[in-house]
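#struct-help
A.M.: can someone run this one for me? Single chain, 111 residues.
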Amino acid sequence: MPDTRELEVQIKYTTDRSSAQRVKQEAQGVGDATEKAAKKAAREAEKAAENARKHIEAQFDRIESAGEKLSNIGGFMAGTGAAILAPLTLAANAYLQTATESDKSSPRSWG
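D.P.: on it. Structure tokens below:
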């Protein structure tokens, strides 16, 4: 069977005003340091967000520039296509008109 013993302890303490004041100041110092660290972290987060915003704007500017270049290329291609097709279309139309007239006057069609 275990041996059970009791221990009664009575602790008395006293604090003087200077000790209480020192503890209060230290606690206030911890609070001030925490507030200062929180403000610093907020400034750093704000700076990081601003840098991210600038980076995103730069990316959008590059995309916009690429889009404008592609638009210019598309316009040039359309103009080139029209310049190539216009004379071919006119020549094909003239050929059909001549062929139609020739077909009407051809001896094959008299009969």
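A.M.: thanks! The radius of gyration is 47 Å.
D.P.: also worth noting: The helical segments are 17-105.
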